[in-house]
Amino acid sequence: MALTSAIKGVIPIAPTPFHPDGRVDEISLDRMSDFFSGAGIDGLTILGQLGEAPKLDHAEAVAIARRVVGRMSVPVLVGVSAPGFAAMRALAREVMDLGAAGVMIGPPNTLRTDDQVVAYYRNAAEAIGPDVPFVIQDYPLTFSVVMTPAVIRRIVTENPSCVMLKHEDWPGLDKITTLRGFEADGSMRHIAILTGNGGLFLDFEMERGADGANTGYAFPEMLVDVVRLSRAGERDAAHDLFDAHLPYLRYEQQQGPLGLAVRKYVFQKRGIFASDAQRKPAANLSAQGKAEVDYLLSRIARVDPRARVAP
Amino acid sequence: MALTSAIKGVIPIAPTPFHPDGRVDEISLDRMSDFFSGAGIDGLTILGQLGEAPKLDHAEAVAIARRVVGRMSVPVLVGVSAPGFAAMRALAREVMDLGAAGVMIGPPNTLRTDDQVVAYYRNAAEAIGPDVPFVIQDYPLTFSVVMTPAVIRRIVTENPSCVMLKHEDWPGLDKITTLRGFEADGSMRHIAILTGNGGLFLDFEMERGADGANTGYAFPEMLVDVVRLSRAGERDAAHDLFDAHLPYLRYEQQQGPLGLAVRKYVFQKRGIFASDAQRKPAANLSAQGKAEVDYLLSRIARVDPRARVAP
Amino acid sequence: MALTSAIKGVIPIAPTPFHPDGRVDEISLDRMSDFFSGAGIDGLTILGQLGEAPKLDHAEAVAIARRVVGRMSVPVLVGVSAPGFAAMRALAREVMDLGAAGVMIGPPNTLRTDDQVVAYYRNAAEAIGPDVPFVIQDYPLTFSVVMTPAVIRRIVTENPSCVMLKHEDWPGLDKITTLRGFEADGSMRHIAILTGNGGLFLDFEMERGADGANTGYAFPEMLVDVVRLSRAGERDAAHDLFDAHLPYLRYEQQQGPLGLAVRKYVFQKRGIFASDAQRKPAANLSAQGKAEVDYLLSRIARVDPRARVAP
Amino acid sequence: MALTSAIKGVIPIAPTPFHPDGRVDEISLDRMSDFFSGAGIDGLTILGQLGEAPKLDHAEAVAIARRVVGRMSVPVLVGVSAPGFAAMRALAREVMDLGAAGVMIGPPNTLRTDDQVVAYYRNAAEAIGPDVPFVIQDYPLTFSVVMTPAVIRRIVTENPSCVMLKHEDWPGLDKITTLRGFEADGSMRHIAILTGNGGLFLDFEMERGADGANTGYAFPEMLVDVVRLSRAGERDAAHDLFDAHLPYLRYEQQQGPLGLAVRKYVFQKRGIFASDAQRKPAANLSAQGKAEVDYLLSRIARVDPRARVAP
Fold it and tell me: What is the pLDDT at residue D311?
């Protein structure tokens, strides 16, 4: 079940549940896997930034991958970004052996020139091996690395095992249009483009040619519906649903650990996570913040009853 | 009409109109001043980042300030951020002589430590002179400078001429709460807090204690109404109006010259600007982008007829 | 043999030898341990940046630590900088169990404010456990994190297990003076200060109050002599020896993988390493570069015969 | 006397003398011009970073350029780096009208991709006009902008008015070799390459193909001699002289305002400047620092009597 460039739909980025004392919460992890399975998704990405991957040690990361891959029937992608290629390779090989469908690789924030970015992905692809499908994570806001469309084309062309772009440049709509233009003019083979940024531009990203969403949002059901409606050409309906969620979606998009705190709070409210604990460095959602989230959810619920969650 | 810490309400950040050949468009500048005057605002900030201030030479900046200050009856604030204190002083003294109410100062992106930030504002306040009221611009996303609440308190305490914070940290709601807490516990004197970030969190910023908005948005009338409703305690009405605009407001919030291109396009559609030209480095709003904006405005117009603009 | 704040002298930072195919070269590793043992050093730091630690996976890092600790009779410090505290803890606990004397921790390049830096070291100290002595690595040029003397004092005061500063701020002479002043005025307990930056300012750092050197240089014998002469008050002799090495020492100080390539080339010439291979991302020392190094060494050898190495 | 790509030799970067109260010291400025004229230089660059250009306002910058250009008979280059192209153009046109030979342009520290760097110089060249010869300042350590040799080739090829590279990448020796290789293989026209970085690698930069030095050092006479000896093929003599100065030259190379404080202190000692004052933000050379400089100069003076300066 290796990931290919034909993938479409919604691949949520999963958070990682912890007990208040910092241990991984395996019961919640299973509950989350089941929740996602029931939400109509097309795959799941674990161990990304949002999944607090850098806060796990190697053994913990492998244990989480084993548990999720073993429980889910959709393709599971695993974030393997690491300070060096040896650690990246070690994790990639282990999770692929466990049945992962592919891996996601973000660049270190020290890269500057076009050639450095291209060389980085060349070395990464070589390190994990040519049989491991990989996803480029293009997230300048967090990584401080800017990849032009031409650089992405170079990476795709050099590395046959590159099958997908997690697009989260910002602004980025014209980038999707340019990349799809490269495919149309024959200068780049097709890759899947799924978009991140918490879904903040998903409505228009779909219209520009994205294949779906690859992002964390506490109501993946909405992402699934918007992607479906958009692909069905039901533009107004897609925007109506998206806009109903946008005030809360925007609230989730507070950068760093606070945005994650919001999402974990809602996962707890939805009965998926037993706790909203984060590992350090962590952010707390204040009482005022929780009340703001509750208010926003109650407003969505007027339109989309799935957002009606017990207080 | 010097700015004081009692200022409240909406102070838009003004863009600068150019002719397609790059010259300042004075007719559009006058039309913009009149438009803002009619929008119920409480002040106007010119020559900020959004106003393409770094792309103007000194003489142009002074000419724009003269023209706007001379035409408007509300307080006019002028951005005087500069690579050095001599240029900052030169501009500040000239625009104050022309009748400006105060100046706005953002930090250079090379500052790192708390002491460096505090020293920067101490030197800036000394350079412009103790009689010139100034606004701290706290905008980490663009400036890469992070000011903790404690650092802001040090700046406020050291510099009697600091009267206002343009708050655009992100995330930043708890920062407002903390700063208002400093005032409540007596550890910091009162300053005005008006918020930026294109208004993306204005709904909750008001509820956390902000005094208003100090940001660019193509429909300042909405900002005025949301601030008024929020201060009147009409929470649901404030959110309803805000949420109706949010899909487009979010679209404006594409960082850098593209977000500005969106706003200038709408100013042109509204008949305020003759052209949406930017000085280099500039971004173009593609035909697809323009169609997306048109679609978003048509959706707002179902609720708020002011967004109904001729195609 | 736990590291204490009484440590003085020279603690070289060790490179890691690889075979040309990228495997760790254990024979060269042993030879390097023996070489350092014979050079009159007071300790050894392994798995730092210079040791290509980020390019190793966890198992490799532990294996190297086991081998070096088992072979040497001086205290061995181990770099445990990691993207998260779980990985840091895992490595720290393992190497301490193997007999390491302490660990070195550099900050992630995303820290900005004073409080963030202090919190980072608080969390790190908690993660590794209060029984593990640690060294602060203060290296703004590489880490982009600036720690004022007051911040270092906060870290030292909060964390009894902090025993040493690897000082490599640049410029940094006055920082040593300020920190020693904190000790003199009783506002900070004593810590060891050993200096890095490839030794570029070792001559004056000793005179400002440093306890020695904690850096990579291909001739640690020179560092040992300069530290000894300086502590004995033989100022001119210390500078004469230092100055004789400076043209080459400066050549080693080319940032990033090139500086390491220079050092590995000389280690190979000295018969310590079988190969000058680096793991990717690597730099090659060109033929021209090698000839330049040879020329520089021949010039040192006129004064210090230890620099006379077979071509 | 327009600058051309045939320029060779030593073009010092001049500091700017201030009175202790911050005013420009015109008498010292004249004395400095005369001093440089007597030092055998081939040109002079004013208003660079080292010249505290960002701390001057426009009128001050023009006044300094007028005074220096009017007094000197060698080509005078003027730094015109600015936050925007309008200010850059205004200064460039004025100083060229005053008789400057060309201008120097460094990139803003926000540029990331290859295309952004190339576009920046295209826009800059257009802004100042095709008749104004310009120098690329390639200084990643300070500007955080990395230009590969291929990017420099694109800039040179696109802009006929680009005549020189101020090379101060670090490490950078192979970059000179690569660029000279581009000329040899016909893929890039010839440009002058003069090197910066305070001269720290001048000895080998000359051997790699540099045309001279374009940097600040308190003894430009040494730079002149090293360039002359190197071009005459007197390798050992060039290195002997360079090495005698290196311990102090290295001491000058403390980044930021401290390095400038060292240089101004020596200019004061040499009787060129009346004061070592800097504008804010400034660094002070401590008493200990001054004693260290005195010691270093006394050591140079054993070999090069020009370094014997009255205490």
Answer: 64
d(CA D61, CA D84): 16
Q: How far is D287 from chain B (nearest CA, A)?
A: 23
- B140 and A CB contact within 8 Å: no
Which residues of B are less than 8 Å from D123 in CB distance?
Answer: 280-281
Examine residue D263 and state whether it is found in any structural domain, yes or no.
no
Give pLDDT, residue D1.
77
Give the chain D residue whose CA is nearest to the CA of B144. D110
The letter for the amino acid at B99 is G
Q: Report the C-alpha gap between D268 and D264 in whole angstroms.
A: 6
Residue B247 lies inside a defined structural domain of this protein: no
- Residue B311 confidence class, pLDDT cut points 50, 70, 90: low
Residues 6+ positions from D185 with CB-CB distance below 8 Å:
none
A1 pLDDT tier (thresholds 50, 70, 90): confident
Beta bridge partners of D105: D136
Are A165 and A190 in contact by the 8 Å Cβ rule? The answer is no
Task: Give a yes or no: residue A286 inside a domain.
Answer: no
Q: Give how far C55 is from chain D: nearest CA, Å.
A: 21
Q: pLDDT band at C309, cuts 50/70/90?
A: confident
- Closest residue to B123, CB basis, from D60, D90, D280: D280
- A18-62 confidence digits (pLDDT tens): 999 999 999 999 999 999 999 999 999 999 999 999 999 999 999
> For residue B78, what pLDDT is reported?
98
pTM: 0.97
Sign of CA dihedral A49, A54, A55, A61: positive
pLDDT value at residue C280: 96
Q: Is the dihedral of CA D2, D5, D6, D12 positive or negative?
A: positive
pLDDT-derived band of residue C311, with 50, 70 and 90 as boundaries? low
On the question of pLDDT at A311 being above 70, the answer is no
Chain D environment of C204 (Cβ under 8 Å): 251, 292
Tell me which chains share at least 3 CB pairs under 8 Å with chain B: A, C, D
Quote the domain boundaries for residue C29: 9-231
| Residues contacting D133, CB < 8 A, separation 6+ | D2, D3, D4, D101, D102, D103, D161, D162, D163, D164
Distances (CA, A) of A228 to A33, A221, A232, B272: 22, 11, 6, 39
Whether residue A150 lies within 8 A of chain D, CB to CB, comes out as yes
CA distance D219 to A265: 65
Cβ-proximal residues to A173 (8 Å cutoff; 6+ apart), any chain: A201, A204, A205, A208, B254, B288, B289, B292
Whether residue C210 contacts residue C176, with contact meaning beta carbons closer than 8 Å, is answered with: yes
In a domain, A303, yes or no: no
D267 neighbors D252 (Cβ within 8 angstroms) = no
C-alpha distance across the termini of chain B, in Å? 40
* DSSP-derived pairing of the beta strands A192-195 and A212-213: parallel
pLDDT, tens digit, 9 for 90 and up, residues A88-135 = 999 999 999 999 999 999 999 999 999 999 999 999 999 999 999 999
pLDDT digits (tens, 9 = 90+) for D132-161: 999 999 999 999 999 999 999 999 999 999
User: What is the domain count for chain C?
Assistant: 1
Q: Which residue has the tokens 């910066």?
A: D196
The enclosing domain of A110 has a CATH number of 3.20.20.70
**Rounded Cα gap, residues A146 and D113, in angstroms:** 6
C55 to chain A, any CB pair closer than 8 A? The answer is yes
Pair of tokens at residue B228: 């008024």
